[in-house]
Structure formats: C-alpha cells, structure tokens
Amino acid sequence: MTTIARPLPKYLVQRYHGWRATTFTENRAWYHRLAEEGQRPRAMMISCCDSRVHVSGIFGADSGEFFIHRNIANLVPPFQPDGQQHGTSAALEFAVTSLKVAHLIIMGHTKCGGVAGCHAMCAGHAPELDEKTSFVGRWMDILRPGYDRVKDLPEDQQVSALEREAVLVSLENLMTFPFVRAAVESGELSLHGMVHNISDGTLVQVDGAGAFSEV
Amino acid sequence: MTTIARPLPKYLVQRYHGWRATTFTENRAWYHRLAEEGQRPRAMMISCCDSRVHVSGIFGADSGEFFIHRNIANLVPPFQPDGQQHGTSAALEFAVTSLKVAHLIIMGHTKCGGVAGCHAMCAGHAPELDEKTSFVGRWMDILRPGYDRVKDLPEDQQVSALEREAVLVSLENLMTFPFVRAAVESGELSLHGMVHNISDGTLVQVDGAGAFSEV
Amino acid sequence: MTTIARPLPKYLVQRYHGWRATTFTENRAWYHRLAEEGQRPRAMMISCCDSRVHVSGIFGADSGEFFIHRNIANLVPPFQPDGQQHGTSAALEFAVTSLKVAHLIIMGHTKCGGVAGCHAMCAGHAPELDEKTSFVGRWMDILRPGYDRVKDLPEDQQVSALEREAVLVSLENLMTFPFVRAAVESGELSLHGMVHNISDGTLVQVDGAGAFSEV
Amino acid sequence: MTTIARPLPKYLVQRYHGWRATTFTENRAWYHRLAEEGQRPRAMMISCCDSRVHVSGIFGADSGEFFIHRNIANLVPPFQPDGQQHGTSAALEFAVTSLKVAHLIIMGHTKCGGVAGCHAMCAGHAPELDEKTSFVGRWMDILRPGYDRVKDLPEDQQVSALEREAVLVSLENLMTFPFVRAAVESGELSLHGMVHNISDGTLVQVDGAGAFSEV
Which family does the record claim for this protein (chains A, B, C, D) (predicted)? Predict the structure, then answer.
C-alpha cells in the first residue's frame, strides 16, 4: 500500500536520538518496567492542545504519572450514549473504569483560542463558526451554557470568565457520566478544576462554591 | 453555584510552586511573549493519552513548539461533517486552518491498551466493547478497517501489526479532510506516521510504501 | 575509582531545583541553624519502609523534629550485644543515648508486605522465606513470637492481629535494651505503639493493657 | 498482657486529626487505591535517620513513590548470607526482588553524626565506639574501608570526604548482592549516589568516575 507519509524532519530525528542516548538510557529500568507491568497513573488530566500548556512540566510529572487527554479548550461534553464516536468520553471511560485513576483534573488556561472563538461565535461575531460544517464551532457548542452565564458581565471580563466556565461546565458534564458519578460518590475519585495563567505562570483552582483562588 | 471540585493534592501544589520558582522564572520572557503574541507551533502531534508516551520529552520540545491532541490510541476518525461534536476533527481543523502547522505527526506506541481492546473486540473476545454504550468500543471502531488487514497474520503478530495500523488508518483518514488534503497538495503541510516502542525507546516511521523502519 | 552510579533521573533533578527555590529558600534560616547547631529531635520514629507510610506527613513534622528509622515491618530485634552489625540497635542507641529523644514511637501499618510474608512463612506457605539465605525471612523471624500468639485466632483475623503484634513485640524488645529501660524508668523516655490503617487513614494506639483504640 | 506504652502526646494527636481532615480526605481516593492494589514504588531511597534529611520533601514525592529505608549514615553492609538478622539487606532484597524498583538511590548528607563518630573512632579519638558492645561503633565499621581512603587527606577535609565515602562504600557493597548485580546488569535497576548539604540545600551526585558534582 502507499501512504502520504514523509520522513520525519531532521531536527526531530536528531533530538530523538539525543533523548534516547540520555533520558531514555538513564531511565531504562523504569521505562522497561512500565512497559512490562502496564501503566498505573494516579491522575487523569484533561487539558488543551495549546502548545503553551504542559501539565507534565508544571507538576514535575514522571513517565507513568498522568493519563492525559488533550482537546480544544479542555472540554468534556455531556454523557451521550448514542453509539457515535466520542473521543473524550472514551478517554474518560478508560481512565475511570479501567485505570481507576484517583484524581481527575480539568486544566484550563488563559489566552485560549478555542474559548475566544466560542465567545465570538456566541456573541454573533463569527458566523463561520456557526456553520454546521465547522468542527471547531460544533465542538465549542459544549461551552454555550457557560456563555449564557457570562454574557451580562462587562465586555472586557467576558472572555476570561468564559475560560473559567470551560472548567466549570466540564466539571458539571463530568457528573452526568454514571461511572464518574459513582466513583466520586464512593470516594474513589476526586474532581479538580483549575486555570493556568500562561502569562504569569500562576494557577487558580475552583472550590466547592464555584470560586477561584490562587493555589 | 456549587461544584464538586476538591483542592489540588498537596504534593502537586508543592511541585507547581517549585516549577514556578524555577522553570517558569527562568523562561519568564519567553512565556510572556508566547502569551502576548499567541502560539505559533510548527507541528501538530496526535498521540495517545497513555501516561508512558510523552512526545515533548522524546523530541525535546519547548513550550510553544507542538500543538498536541491526545486521545485513546492516537486515532483520527474519517471526515464526517454531520454537525455533531468531533473533538479530534475540531483540533485538526484548528491546527491546519488557523495555526497552519507545517507538520502533522501521528505518534503511535507499543503496548497500547486501546489497540489491544480493539483487537479483542474485533476477534470476538470482548463483547462488552461491542455494546452500543461502550465509549471505548465505539471509539475503537475507527480502527476496524485496520483489523481486517491484520486478521490473517499469525496470531502473535496481530496486535503489534494493529498498532501500526492505528497510524496507517489515521493517515488515510486525514486525507479525507478537504482542508488537510488541500494543505498537503499545496505543499504547506506534510504528514508523518510513527510508532514508539515504549520498552526499548526506539521509534519507527512509515514511508511512502507503507513500510516501517527505524528512525 | 569507578562507580556504577548513574545520573539522577531528570524529573527528580527538576523537582529538587523546585524544592530548593521554594521550600528551602523560605526556610533557609531554620535549615542553616539546624545544620550549625545540630539536630535536637524530640522523638524517634520507627516505621516501615513501605512507600505508603509517611510519619512526617501524618504528624505535620518539620525538619528537625523526628529522628526516623525505617525498616521492613517497623521491627525492633532483641538486645544482642554480640559485636555484629545491628542497624536498628545502632539507630536506637544513637537516638536514646546521644540525642536523648523524649519519645520513641513504633508506627505499624495495615497491608504490610513484611507482616504478610511472616505470616505465610510461619504458617508453612512460604518455604523460600524459611531458607537461611532469605534476608527478608531471617528479618521477619523477629516477629515469630507474635505469630505464636495469633495462630489460634480465626484465619481471617490472623494477619491484622500480626500487624499489631509487630508493634507489641517491638515494644517488648525495646525494654531488653538496658539504655532504653534505664531511660524509661528514669522518666526521660516514653514508649508509644500504634498502627496506621493506610486505607481509611485512621490510627490506633496501644495502651498499658495491650489493647488498641482509636487515637 | 501489659505493655509499657503510653498515650501519644497531645500535640501529635492534634496534628494527626488535622492531617486526616485535610490531606487524607483530599487524597482519599488515591490512598484507598494504593491500599487495595498495593504499592508500586519506582525507586528505593536509602537515607540517614537524621531528622534534617527528608527525601520526600526534596523530591516532591507523593505517597507510593519511594520505598525508603533509613539507618544511621545511610550505609549498606556487604552481602553476608549468614542466617543472621540484617535489616538493611532485608529491605534491599524486598525492594529489588519483590517490588522490582527501577532506581536505587543512596542519599548521604553533610554534618552526619554517624560519619563524624566513625571518623573519631577510626582516628583513635572515640575508644567507647571501639567497644564490642557499641552498636553505633559496630554499625559504623561498615565505613572503615572509606576511612582508609581519606585518612591521608588534610585533617579538615577528612570528615566531609568520609561523608562521600559513606555513599561510595555503600554503592560498592550494593554490587556484592547477587540480586542487585543481576538487576543492574540486566538493565532493570540503576544505582545513584548523592550527598545533600543540609546547610545550603545543594545536592551533589557521583558519576561513573567517582567524582561528585552539583545536580
């Protein structure tokens, strides 16, 4: 068969060989054991695809620590068992029911392109996202309930409020999954929500009353 | 409003403060500029949620370099503009049409739980994954065409062949997206497919003839 | 000379730098003084090597507070002044006669692999631990007198009873050390025994009648 | 039966209740899972009982990460399968053969009372440690080969050189254990040696040539 695939760019090949000769070699024993015995991550992280957000770095995580799903705007859609393909729900199901992670952390961030697009779309400034054919627009529909809660704030506060809503809405949607709710209620799983400010490096987390404060 | 959210575990709080006092502080200027000017990643990576796979580490990537989507088994579903929520397609659309990444890399890996589950399901050994309500099962349906190509191999070669199929099927599906095909044909985007062996750290990549060889 | 030593894994290097830039820096004065004036811990803790037991965490201990010896199953062997190497006895001697700690706390825990191994060995189910060459088996011999006291209990109560015996036997053995007995009798040292339930976080302590109750 | 045990001091009871209401509660899910599934630490740490040394803090370790043995001066005695009780050898055997840790880290420190005592004893200034009945003296005999390598250095450099020897001698002794040597040679285990300066918080590690440099 033929494929469209091209060789990896040279600078990436070079870095990979460097990684293998250093980091991999130094941790060969641990990587080998992780491969043989299987992963056993303590937490699932749901964060954005954005190239400026790296939860492994922020939390000094070693290989094997976090099961990480990354999508646009770190969103969790509601439970929808319709037999269709739901990548986020599949990742959730695997993490909670098979891996039995103890923590599930929604990691939002400032300056999120997805959230900004959602705001523009909901405010009527981005009709192209409203098209049925816009995958980004349809994905960001998940955050519409959040827009309704921020649209009466002063204009210049709405987008950052919506970034927090991306976390709050996802936390709400998480609890619509029966296996998440059951694990939370039995004490086997705890949920956490936070927003990372990519400009100044700070982290705020949400408490039980829906308020955010610095970690 | 109330939320189900709990405070972040203390060891993560401690590590975050450590990160902020060192890595963040040392790179403050770059992070600040990335935040102000927006991201401009050179590549999109599609890799698995598995806690043992970290493309940033393997490729020594700095903040801002890779736009990373992670889902179960690093799969890309076919183009399906049905107005439903497609997280992977949304990430693709954003990376290719808005960020205009130059490379799109599908990063598979060995010992993939999702691929093993798909194999069991297709071989008839995991009826629970065949249920309409199994999110993992429905997600792994994307890989069924790959199973059909490996099912006549010797039993003990099928799963690792299917791990490679997860990359090949995704490369094929990528080309069903008009915006991907257009960017590839105009030379603005190149596609790459590889499988990372998490036991011995090696990397193989697929060439235009569909064959895999060591990088 | 050559050594077999390898560089520290990178994620630990990163975390160490984070610790030094935060916790260490914030407590620099206290650490400096502790280093210059010497330690003066108020208690010695004897606990298990098990990665799930951390007395510093449970008791909110600051640097300098506890002198901590950790071995398999938190055992104290009997006084045996035979000129051989006794790591636990050396730690005891240093804590009681040089540091003059005021409290000596034996901290047992549930789900102890060492205790389970001892039970299997004494019950005849782990002949490999009975070999002269098994370091774990010989070490767990210290707990044999405890096994004799639990072996007539119902089968399913024996292991957890033996976890408590690991504390009781150690308390008994402590009193065979002349310097411990002297310090206890003069009122300069008090002994304490407890078992930490690592599942539910509770702590039980033994009283003068040998009964355990919640702290 | 009667015991000599006394109730836990009130301030410790109070802190324990605080820990249980906060840290434990917030991590209930993870602690519960660790208890049910068993520990799977990635590294064994051998460090000193000294109250000023806490590897969990320095390395931001979570519960379940490190299997920790602590004895006077972080020493490993040579392999001695004589059927006697060897607490350190038992901990080693359990970590390497049962838990199959990937890293084994000897963590020395400055201002070590045990090392200072060893120096005094070997230099003839502490005859009481030379007594057959001194547990500390007999334990520190393990470090005598190190003293022979530092005794011709200028007087004021000997003790700190001996602190590094405590790490080097232990690394050498580790390799006398057949199960350690086998795991190192098969690539399943890597050894690491370092000395923590408790005054200024720095860490030095030894390389393959026996030289120490800052981490």
Answer: Belongs to the beta-class carbonic anhydrase family.
